[in-house]
Amino acid sequence: MTDEPLLRVSALSKFYGSRVGCDNVSFDLWPGEVLAVVGESGSGKTTLLNCLSTRLLPSSGTASYRMRDGQFRELYRMSEAERRFLMRTDWGFVHQNPADGLRMTVSAGANVGERLMAVGDRHYGKIRATAVDWLSRVEIEEDRIDDEPRAFSGGMRQRLQIARNLVTGPRLVFMDEPTGGLDVSVQARLLDLLRGLVTDLGLAAIVVTHDLAVARLLSQRMMVMKDGRVVESGLTDRVLDDPRAPYTQLLVSSILQV
Amino acid sequence: MYVAVKGGEAAIANAHGLLADRRRGDRSVPALRLDQIVEQLALGVDRVMSEGSLYDRELAALAIVQARGDMIEAIFLVRAYRTTLPRFGYTRPIDTGAMLVERRVSATYKDLPGGQLLGPTFDYTHRLLDPELATGADVAEPLQRAREAEPMPRVSAILAREGLIEPDGKMPQDHIPGDITREPLEFPMARDIRLQALSRGDEGFLLALGYSTQRGYARNHPFVGEIRIGEVELELDIPELPFAVPLGTVRVTECQMVNQFKGSAKAPPQFTRGYGLVFGQSERKAMAMALCDRALRASELGEDVVAAAQDEEFVISHSDNVQATGFVEHLKLPHYVDFQAELDLVRRMRAEYEARENPAKAEETKEAAE
Amino acid sequence: MTAQPTDIATYNFAYLDEQTKRMIRRAILKGIAIPGYQVPFASREMPMPYGWGTGGVQVTASIIGPDDVLKVIDQGADDTTNAVSIRAFFKKVANVTVTTDTATASIIQTRHRIPEHPLTAGQVLVYQVPIPEPLRFLEPRETETRKMHALEEYGLMHVKLYEDIAKHGRIATTYAYPVKVEGRYVMDPSPTPKFDNPKMHRSPALQLFGAGREKRIYAVPPFTDVVSLDFEDHPFEVQTFDQPCALCAAENVYLDEVILDDHGGHMFVCSDTDHCEKRREEGHRGHLAPETHLAPANMEPAQ
Questions:
Q1: Does C56 qualify as catalytic in the annotation?
Q2: Band of the pLDDT at B269, cuts 50, 70, 90?
Q3: Tens of pLDDT along A112-126?
Q4: Which of C16, C141, C239 is nearest residue B341 as measured by Cβ atoms?
Q5: Per the database record, which ranges form the ABC transporter domain (chain A) (predicted)?
Q6: Which residues from A are below 8 Å from B266, CB to CB?
């Protein structure tokens, strides 16, 4: 473990005209740490995620990422080429809808192998072996390797998307409602799998979710957002068991009533 | 015994001889004169000028005869001639507000300054074939009234007085208008470039896309603010002279669509506009162009791009009928080198498939072949 | 208003006006400076349809001089109708010497083949290109493909090759087989069979590519690396033919299949007609060669 954070976010804001996307968000993310960002739809959590993953440029504020060489780099000052390279090597992005993160018309094997080929792997046999390995780690049978994700169930597609992201050994993964849109039983299995992978690989992750159960299962720390602002943050167990902000109390109690 | 096919040159010459013969047809029928085409097939001539983007009636008529009436072929002939012409300069923007109007209709006002002028229109004709035309009977002189002194302001100017419609766009002072015949197209394009491409785009393609917007594929609630057809003056700035030099007049059709708009993050609630302008008289094309122009402004106005008509790269890349016809028709050129490569691959894969599926039979076939 | 057929429409020498030729030459020079990079250019309407070689014709028209000797082939043959037509066009508008002889031509315009006879320094091979973008069928958007080239993001290209191997056991691309030029740009070699790809590698001739409808020019300067994409364990390989040319007995050349009857009778002959004729003149005989001697390849001087 290192004594420096992986990501430093300072006073990040994003405005759409006069409307607030997210406002003055600051935090540090440490290697191997899973941070959950929770809130209702429209709270700004997805805007924050998109800014952090450089899919959106913020209106103001900074985010610095510690590269593999130990140097911090200011994300919004990187060239597009550098950002895109980071996106397909050191980072992952798991979309809520797997179709947004997969190539639906190429095989599962190629979906997993694409990142390897993008960084220069040119041995078909090795790429395929790695794909087989990753499919098994996300509990997809080897004989489905040449099938297109169109033929997969929602849960399988989501697991395939995770494998596609993790194959290059990223250090930071962004997840946008990774279990949204799945049946409850499928959700539970996916969460188990994710938790295992995150622990085994020592991944840092930022998980956006409206589901407090997901936050509880996956994250060590959480931030609660409302109207673009962070209203409370802290260790996940503490926030959920002893919510201090009135809005968090409301969120927690409304979940408990269900 | 096989002898490689030769004599392509002779075959081509003979084919073209036959084409010339068929073009002329029965020699006992008088040959068409260009002035007959210019005068009596004027809308065909207009289309060739418009999509050929060269304002010259006589050349357009020549192209129509040479193409045996095939409009896209005629447009192609004009384009291939136009491209060789030197460029002397760019005229000032035409002022359609000062047009000598022959037809002007508005769907948004019952009456308006300058009035509604039906002009030479097919509208309200009953589409009954007229046998009299076949006999070449005399046609009565049309009724003419003295030219109206009353000015005919554009509907967009009337709406603008109330601030209800977006103003005429302004280009930066030093903006040099784009020229799609001199610069390569690049996406996304500025609106001046896009309008040029639409103006020479295929009438049928734009008509279909415009129609699709009306049927709900990117609906944009259009009203015909105004269509006007008539002559406008062309003026050229010459550096040595302190005034613009008039070059003559061209006949154009202009359509301004007025579209409802609720406002967005980028623009206040107001009417927006789609614009169509083509050489000669072609309401259908000008209206379709205006619908497409408005649809293509989706991103500019903060609307979601959900339909083909809003997709600039899709629309502009496929609107040119000379490009389209060339590429579709090139499929009849020989491709046997590529086909041979594919044949070879399919044969190999087929043999492997047979061997896998039915090893005994494959063996049999192989023996029979040997 | 009677038409005056002689002066109603006149054309400039070599069809294109000089300004246009300069513009195209600038695009060509830029292409040569950045091997494999697609240079946008303001393609003109040409007197033949888009898709029929307008890009190649514009390139040729811009570089041709009165002393040039022009050869035009389509599918490897000098006598296919479109090759005849383009050759006749330049004979008419530029009044240059035309030939079918690969070795004596200074400019060779081609569609779908590279001649079998090795090209030499000083020769220019002009390719007619229908779709210049090698990524087009993987990513239809021009805005995105330009970005992918700029950032050298070519992973998708190998995804396509991976899929071929996964589905067919081999790379199933047989023509327009993508290449990497000088280690940087991925380039479409135009729809030549992959058989011809190795001929592009470090060729002493200048190779120019013109796509008229798509408005792109690109180039491979002499002695430039042109490497076909592949995998280490599935290396690039060219087509092989089981039999030699039926007319001239040539081996290791690209062959066309000719159907002789409707009972499955067929023969394979050289796609490069000039190469085949030269070999027969030298006395080579295939098993179906006619007995009579063929006329030597002709050279038509300028008038």
A1: no
A2: confident
A3: 999 999 988 999 999
A4: C239
A5: 7-252
A6: 17
SS3 assignment, position C243: coil
What value does the mean pLDDT take over residues A47-54?
A: 95
Any idea how long chain A is?
Answer: 258
Residues of A in contact with B301 (CB under 8 A): none
User: What was the pLDDT predicted at C4?
Assistant: 43
Residue A173: both structure tokens together:
């993964």
Nearest to B309 by CA among B212, B183, B176: B212
Question: For residue C7, what pLDDT is reported?
Answer: 58
Q: In the sheet that A7-16 helps form, which strands lie side by side, from edge to edge?
A: A19-29, A7-16, A60-66, A72-74
C7 to chain A, any CB pair closer than 8 A? The answer is no
Q: Which chains have 3+ CB pairs within 8 A of B?
A: A, C
Domain assignment of residue A226, yes or no:
no
Catalytic option among C31, C36, C55, C286:
C36
CB contact under 8 A, C52 and B326: yes
Residue B2 has pLDDT above 50, yes or no: no
Rounded CA-CA distance B275/A114 in Å is 45
Q: How far is A76 from chain C (nearest CA, A)?
A: 17
Q: Which of C75, C107, C111 is nearest to C94 (CA)?
A: C107
Closest CA to C41 of C51, C50, C30, C53: C30
In this structure, the number of other CB atoms found within 10 A of the CB of residue C133 comes to: 22
Q: Which domain holds residue A134?
A: 95-169
Q: What is the pLDDT of residue A3?
A: 80
Report the number of distinct structural domains present in chain A. 1
Q: In whole angstroms, what is the distance from residue A180 CA to residue A37 CA?
A: 14
Smallest Cβ distance to A117: which of C150, C151, C155? C155
Q: Where are the domains of chain B?
A: 9-82, 96-120+147-169+176-319, 336-362
User: Which of C56, C76, C210, C270 is labelled catalytic?
Assistant: C270
Model confidence, pTM: 0.81
Residue B180 to residue B195: CA distance in whole angstroms? 10
The reply to whether A202 falls in a domain is no
Say how many residues make up chain B: 370
Neighbours of C217 (CB within 10 A): 31
A250 in any annotated domain: no
On the question of pLDDT at A42 being above 90, the answer is no
Alpha helices in chain C, H assignment, sequence order: 18-33, 54-63, 81-93, 142-150, 155-168, 197-200, 273-281
